[in-house]
Amino acid sequence: MQEILRNYINGGWETGATTGLSENPSDLATPVAEYARADARQAQQAVLAAHDAAASWALSTPQRRADALDFVGSEILARKDELGALLAREEGKPLAEATAEAARAGNIFKFFAGEALRITGDKVASVRPDIDVDVTREPVGVVAIIAPWNFPLAIPAWKIAPALAYGNAVVFKPAELVPACGWALAEILSRAGLPAGVFNLLNGSGRQVGQALIEHPLVDAITFTGSETVGAQVRQQVASRGVKVQLEMGGKNPLVVLGDADLDRAVECAVQGAFFSTGQRCTASSRLVVERTVYDGFVSRMRDRMKQLKVGPALARGTDIGPVASKPQLEQNQSYLEIGRAEGAELVAGGRLVECETAGHYMSPALLLGAPEHRTAREEIFGPVATVLKADSYEHALALANDTPYGLCAGICTTSLKRASHFKRHAQAGMVMVNLPTAGVDYHVPFGGRKGSSHGPREQGRYAAEFYTTVKTAYTCA
């Protein structure tokens, strides 16, 4: 291991109150890194530094912000193989997926480098004579970013890049499972020419560092991605202060397979959507709603396809499914299989703990045949576990797809343009996929859901401006 990875506060690298060890879920005998864990006092320092730097950064030129973000994006893309290997070791994502995520992070920074030069406003004719009206966007101020562990480069990128592009100062707290990925991103940002205090990194616990950021009176906006439980707590805590908040809180995403679907394509959509990235995606299709006429054939083909999937170390050649990210997550996955059996669901494939050449958190993807009321069909498991539900018709399938407290993604496999168009209009989700896996989105368009999945403005693309800026209307008398 290298030296202890430090926090980045007010333009300098700082030790922490304690240290932690980043685990390699593919090989528990070889940890990834030792890192400094910040505390509430250092969170206070970082917020004060961001507050002091925010005013001048807000008035910086669009070109300066664009140049900084372009530098970050270019370096990430140039080092995508190296960063992908780090991500694979620390989070457990197979190398090809990890490298693709690193490239996505680089492209996000490049995209928002361009957006920094395209911040627009409006000049509107007043309803009164001799008055001009200007509508402009200004930065919010200090943005606290609390990111999850499952996409440790891409999700921080799609939060940090727009925050900086629109002139905000940032305090970034990665998840404790992935401190090395957060540090690697911060190290690049530390060399991007940003003034001291504009960007800050705090590795540490949610209870100390995360809570300190949520409670701090100088934090103007909070963007959080994580569980619905924690997201609801964040929303409740900041409501009385009027802090701007953006929450992404997971999903229980349906993939509908109709009787006219190309079954081979539908199975591939289901396998990729449900099991790739070890099912650890908020967009994973963990509810497979299949029309009765093709139900048996779909399940049979799923079982055959799942036998071909190779579970193994993230860096190993040929690995399709890497390890679960942590022991607690693995235990939760296994507990849901027991819950499913107790409720009457049938485990027809996978779900076993797997032994590999190195000790790690391995399990084979699991397929359950269940009912709509089963917890495995309603609650987000966040692992390689999918439940198949039987639908009597398209209308029944649509009703089952919408029968969830979440509303992030919904997918449909069909050859009917009529059904596809109807589903796109009536699926109660923020994102809809037709003949595609529910997991897998572009970086230049909005990301977000409905119901219990999301709260606040959308992330990514030009819609990010809605969260990271505030609108000002100015009147001038000629």
TrEMBL record:
Catalytic site positions: 248
Domain of life: Bacteria
ATP-binding keyword on record: no
Domain Aldehyde dehydrogenase as annotated: residue spans: 23-473
A Pfam family reported for this protein in Swiss-Prot or TrEMBL: Aldedh
Coiled coil start-end: none
Xref: InterPro entries: Ald_DH/histidinol_DH (IPR016161), Ald_DH_C (IPR016163), Ald_DH_CS_CYS (IPR016160), Ald_DH_CS_GLU (IPR029510), Ald_DH_N (IPR016162), Aldehyde_DH_dom (IPR015590)
Record's keyword terms, sorted: Oxidoreductase
Database matches in CDD domains: ALDH_KGSADH-YcbD
Transmembrane segments: none
Gene3D superfamilies linked to this entry: Aldehyde Dehydrogenase, Chain A, domain 1, Aldehyde Dehydrogenase, Chain A, domain 2
Keyword Oxidoreductase: yes
PANTHER family linked: ALDEHYDE DEHYDROGENASE-RELATED
Homology family: Belongs to the aldehyde dehydrogenase family.
Full protein name: Aldehyde dehydrogenase family protein
